[in-house]
From TrEMBL:
Protein name: Glutaredoxin domain-containing protein
PROSITE patterns (alphabetical): GLUTAREDOXIN_2
Keywords of this entry: Cytoplasm, Redox-active center
Name of the encoding gene: LOC100775606
Biological classification of the source: Eukaryota, Viridiplantae, Streptophyta, Embryophyta, Tracheophyta
Predominant location category: cytoplasm
Record-annotated Glutaredoxin domain positions: 13-75
CDD domains: GRX_GRXh_1_2_like
InterPro entries found in the cross-reference section: GlrX-like_pln_2, Glutaredoxin, Glutaredoxin_subgr, Thioredoxin-like_sf
Gene3D superfamilies reported for this sequence: Glutaredoxin
Length: 105
């Protein structure tokens, strides 16, 4: 878990992803549509990806990707992020984490 904490430290938005996962792509596109620039960590392209994936599973990420952290807090996977967006809560989380600075709907 320390590896996940170190990878999410001091970053407003971190998305753990796999380059072949279409839901990861969808979540990245959704968060970017707000004007945020998330740090994307592609587990299948990093040497210690399996170790990070195990740590994500221990945190409760099932499936392991996408796993979204906003303001160093685990938000969840695609279902949770999309639900927050539908409830008009995602923008507020991004604002609070200083991932975006202005948002009006």
């Amino acid at each position: 878990m320390d590896v996940v904490t170190s990878l999410t430290a001091d970053k407003p938005v971190v998305i753990f992803s796999k380059s072949t996962c279409f839901m990861s792509h969808t979540v990245k596109a959704l968060i970017c549509s707000f004007g945020a620039s998330p740090s994307v960590i592609e587990l299948d392209k990093m040497q210690s990806g399996h170790q990070v994936e195990r740590a994500l599973i221990q945190l409760g990420c099932k499936p392991s990707v996408p796993a979204v952290f906003i303001g160093q807090q685990f938000i969840g996977g695609a279902d949770e992020v999309i639900k927050l967006n539908v409830q008009n809560k995602l923008a507020q989380l991004l604002l609070g984490a200083k991932a975006i600075f202005i948002w009006s709907r």
